[in-house]
């Protein structure tokens, strides 16, 4: 029962990433509030306020109808204008930076909440407008409800001003990369803080029973703690064979088990693998490396030709790699000091190769970019220290490959001498 509840809560949490979630939620709340106000009007709240605080109540039918009609038309215009700007932002981000940035921009909760405020206010004003009786006297007019419509309009105007500010900041690539960096940094620091690894605590799983995936998509999240509880209950160890964030096809090996499992247990474990058609940095820090690398590569394309953005991107990559060095290449999930689950991750060698391979391919002709990349690699080598020979060898290999590629395309002897002097 507990596993089913957690599974349901995870699905609800995934809904919050959809662009329509918060607008729909606020629209429903707006409808509920509308009927609460109508109920209060039916019980004479406007009559009471008109007798007690007449300045708070609009007691003219034509004025009320004109205000509400104007509010509805104005709010629809503001909403159309606001989210036309969102489409422009998404189009520019896709063209100038990277299409991979779009899921993160679309899931901006502040913009979703502003859209929800607009929709809730439009629905509220529309239903209150319908409720007004054309031939009613001042005591039948929902003056108190109209007062709230004015308040909602003021709030929406404030939200519109904030939206203009937010969209003007969000379209700047430095702010986009900074957001990606901070989310990825927090995710990696959380993983490092909760990481527990001892190589001898988990047996070799090469000959274990394999279980395939029944669906395809990006592996967005794995509830490893719940899988560990299942493994403990069944006195078995589980090796999660797929890396979170990668695209998984049907029939790919999803996990391995120390012994053969019953169908019910297999289904229970499979439920804790969440698949998606899009990717988010919040769930997978590796995506931050991909996104920032693609920004740098796109900036160096002939159509964009923006080496300054590429240099900034390399600075962010340098900071991310400096944090990633602290993380182990594999992690175990423990219960009572017993490792029940092994979780596969993108190892450091693969990660730095994927980043450097793209940058070397598209940026090796630019002396300044090559210099920046060498500074990044030597900085990482210094952080690693002499104790971690494996990581040092990986970084040395990338330095050698970068210099080799630069020598093939840079013909100026002075530039080559300068690059070699850094190395």
TrEMBL record:
<protein>
    <submittedName>
        <fullName>Putative membrane protein</fullName>
    </submittedName>
</protein>
<keyword id="KW-0472">Membrane</keyword>
<dbReference type="Pfam" id="PF10011">
    <property type="entry name" value="DUF2254"/>
</dbReference>
<feature type="transmembrane region" description="Helical">
    <location>
        <begin position="67"/>
        <end position="90"/>
    </location>
</feature>
<keyword id="KW-0812">Transmembrane</keyword>
<feature type="transmembrane region" description="Helical">
    <location>
        <begin position="20"/>
        <end position="40"/>
    </location>
</feature>
<dbReference type="InterPro" id="IPR018723">
    <property type="entry name" value="DUF2254_membrane"/>
</dbReference>
<keyword id="KW-1133">Transmembrane helix</keyword>
<feature type="transmembrane region" description="Helical">
    <location>
        <begin position="144"/>
        <end position="164"/>
    </location>
</feature>
<feature type="transmembrane region" description="Helical">
    <location>
        <begin position="111"/>
        <end position="132"/>
    </location>
</feature>
């Amino acid at each position: 029962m507990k596993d089913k509840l957690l599974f349901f809560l995870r699905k609800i949490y995934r809904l919050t990433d959809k662009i329509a979630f918060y607008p729909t939620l606020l629209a429903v709340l707006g409808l509920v509030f509308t009927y609460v106000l109508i109920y209060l009007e039916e019980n004479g709240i406007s009559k009471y306020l008109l007798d007690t605080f007449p300045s708070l109540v609009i007691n003219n039918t034509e004025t009320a109808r004109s205000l509400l009609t104007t509010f509805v038309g104005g709010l629809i215009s503001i909403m159309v204008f606001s989210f036309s700007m969102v489409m422009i932002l998404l189009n520019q981000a896709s063209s100038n930076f990277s299409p991979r940035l779009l899921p993160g921009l679309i899931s901006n909760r502040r913009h979703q909440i502003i859209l929800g405020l607009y929709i809730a206010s439009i629905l509220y004003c529309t239903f209150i407008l319908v409720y007004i009786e054309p031939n009613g006297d001042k005591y039948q007019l929902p003056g108190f409800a109209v007062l709230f419509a004015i308040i909602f309009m003021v709030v929406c105007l404030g939200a519109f001003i904030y939206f203009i500010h937010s969209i003007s900041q969000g379209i700047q690539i430095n702010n986009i990369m900074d957001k990606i960096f901070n989310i990825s940094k927090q995710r990696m620091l959380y993983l490092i803080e909760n990481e527990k690894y001892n190589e001898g605590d988990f047996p070799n799983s090469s000959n274990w029973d394999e279980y395939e995936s029944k669906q395809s998509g990006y592996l967005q999240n794995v509830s490893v703690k719940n899988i560990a509880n299942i493994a403990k209950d069944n006195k078995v160890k589980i090796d999660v064979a797929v890396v979170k964030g990668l695209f998984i096809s049907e029939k790919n090996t999803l996990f391995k088990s120390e012994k053969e499992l019953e169908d019910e247990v297999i289904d229970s474990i499979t439920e804790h693998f969440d698949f998606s058609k899009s990717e988010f940095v919040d769930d997978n820090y590796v995506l931050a490396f991909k996104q920032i690398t693609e920004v740098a590569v796109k900036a160096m394309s002939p159509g964009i030709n923006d080496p300054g953005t590429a240099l900034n991107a390399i600075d962010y990559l340098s900071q991310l790699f400096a944090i990633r060095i602290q993380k182990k290449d594999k992690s175990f999930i423990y219960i009572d000091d017993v490792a029940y689950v092994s979780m596969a991750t993108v190892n450091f060698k693969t990660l730095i190769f994927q980043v450097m391979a793209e940058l070397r391919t598209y940026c090796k002709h630019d002396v300044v970019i090559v210099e920046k990349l060498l500074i990044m690699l030597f900085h990482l080598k210094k952080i690693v220290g002499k104790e971690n020979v494996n990581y040092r060898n990986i970084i040395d290999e990338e330095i050698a490959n970068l210099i080799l590629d630069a020598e093939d395309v840079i013909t100026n002897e002075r530039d080559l001498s300068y690059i070699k002097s850094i190395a």
